[in-house]
Write a structure and sequence with these properties.
globular; single chain
Length: 63
């Protein structure tokens, strides 16, 4: 995840309640077990647990 700092990525995330969501985030900071990011879906800062991130894909920019 460190290579994605400052980038927008799409993640598949397993919530604490067992729900699975797909969302685009702007990665701001990586902690020991967390990713601090700006969630484009909710338009707000969010903290994601690394172990709950099931997949990560960079979001390409349109030319």
């Amino acid at each position: 995840m460190l290579r994605f700092i400052g980038q927008t990525v799409e993640i598949i995330y397993s919530g604490n309640d067992g729900s699975i969501t797909q969302r685009a985030i702007e990665v701001r900071e990586i902690g020991n077990n967390t990713v601090k990011a700006f969630c484009l879906r909710w338009r707000a800062p969010r903290v994601f647990r690394i172990e709950n991130i099931l997949a990560v894909q960079p979001v390409g920019r349109a030319s």
